[in-house]
Write a structure and sequence with these properties.
With 329 residues, the protein is of the alpha/beta class. 36% of the residues lie in helices and 24% in strands. The strands form two sheets. The chain has an eight-stranded mixed β-sheet, with helices on one face. A six-stranded parallel β-sheet has the order 3-2-1-4-5-6, with helices on both faces. It is globular. 45% of the residues are buried.
Length: 329
Amino acid sequence: MSTPVTFALLGSGGIARAWARALAEVPHATLVGCWDPDRAAAEAFAAEFHCATYPAEQALLDDDQVEAVIVCSPNPWHCPQTVAAAQAHKHVLTEKPMALIVENCDRMIATCEQAGVLLMVGQALRFYPPFDRALQMARAGELGRVLGADLTRMGTSGPLERPRTWRDDESLTGGWLLELNVHEVDFLQTLLGLPESVCALRSNLLKPATESGYDLLNLVALCPEGRQGHLLAGEIAQGEGMTRYVVFGEEATLRWDAWSPKLTITRPGSTAVQVVEWEPQYSPMGYQLDGFRAAIRGEGPVPVTGEDGRAAIATCARIRQSWETGQPA
């Protein structure tokens, strides 16, 4: 029987609550406590999830009960908190985006390696049922040769008149590409391979232009062996059917909408549509957490490595370079 891994959370907001719920559903993973600079928020979180609070971040890192830390803070703190946790000899699972710049990703990877601890990046999209099944089918050769993918994610931040939150502050997020669409970037290059070149166009028609913002983004990525990925993303469309995903294989095409728990399969020369549905054992956060727990106990690989997280940030930097210069990057 595997010994439970004890976790603590840096942060107590919405994403920390998602990780706390995952800790409750995954066997052999235990929530010890949390720290948040907002003491009242931390205490409310602790009361909800029956865990301890710490008077300071360093007090959490100094607690020998804590074996692993999940970094749930706004994006600029992912790097310094990961580094601090690693130097305290804690394994680290940091939320996406791994960091705002590639150099900080390198620092995080190097510090964890020097400290002899594991580093994982939370890329939950990979673990939603249709995305996970699509990756499994592609790796197993069930689609034949994978040719490309077409991803559309629209209206994801809600109505433009909604109340603003920290996620709308580019100094805290690095922009919507890093805060949200890094999910699709990670999925595309996990499926198709690291892009050899990217071409990106953005527009700002509904609100004032900012350094990193857009209300519409078009991305084309040329990947190894001629595979092509396309992403259309933005805030401007609302309503059903505005978020959908397609993976093209030589022997099958997969389609699914938004967060549907099923995908459809069509094959060349046939009008028949196969619908695949399944009941997952865990939530997407739960699958990530269970994989990281297993890796800590030497029972499997880290599901999303620091190198994976770095690759997504590097590709996002090239996407931004392309829209700034008007040239492929």
